Amino acid sequence: MTKRILVFRQISDEQLSALEQDFSVDYLPDTASVEDPAFLDALGHAHGLVGSSLAITPTLLDRAPNLEAIASISVGYDNYPVDELTRRGILLCNTPDVLTETTADTGFLLIMCTARRAIELAQLIKEGNWTESIGSDLYGSDVHGKTLGMVGMGRIGAAVARRGALGFGMNILYTKASPKPDLERELGAKRREFDQLLAEADIVCVTVPLSAETEKLFGAREFAQMKPGACFVNIARGKVVDEAAMIEALGDGTLHAAGLDVFEHEPLAADSPLPQMNNVVALPHIGSATNETRTAMAQRAVDNIRLALRGERPISPVNEEVLKG
Question: In Å, what is the CA distance from 69 to each residue of 66, 90, 149, 210, 295?
């Protein structure tokens, strides 16, 4: 029997053809909701899923009796019930490594734009309001030589830290991570307790995964502990931050400025005050959104699902317990 795959995110024609060589494929790249009748119908026959962004719940899994493996086109997997997948013997795969450098580029883009007020000043020109040399009220802050505090020091965190240390001569602190002796030697990085890092860093950049321990890691208390004039950058997950507390801190000056690629609810609500705040740089979750990286992520997912459904070890399994049977 030919196994069936449901693909619910766009992949290239070449990638689709590669899957069709071995499997029967239901290709629904424009699926916006798990309530889509076509999605639900295909789910009922699927042995494998390839996609991202949609929340796969235990209720949905009940409608997928043949499901053996999921290849997510993402690194994060907080929209999948991993324990439930493992209990049911369903393998989950993701795409680590593929987007590390691109996401780190986005993180440093936010660091630069936030510190130097680049978006705010570009808007000044767009609106025709640049009529004289800018005064000190519009000055930004230097990035070179400053202290960069990394909250999380996995692949992406280390890549951001390298950009800061090697490209801009920044002092690197890190927390919420196991000791990294190799990075300490390479970058001169120093491990700090969380509160100590907040007090010392000129720029705080968040790259921790979302978990029960990191949800709302940043709230009113944490923002109040940051240095006056410090910038806050989040390229992790929106729910790592208490967004209401952040908005209040940005509004009353407790938090100087923020660069954000992720939000508590995405897309960002039209009535959110964040895009209207001059001390906020907000991006629409573009961390890995380049042609090259998205193509590579989709290819990793295609490779993962082909291997998994053949009974071979995929490149990047999440719940390896399933492989041990």
Answer: 9, 5, 38, 22, 21
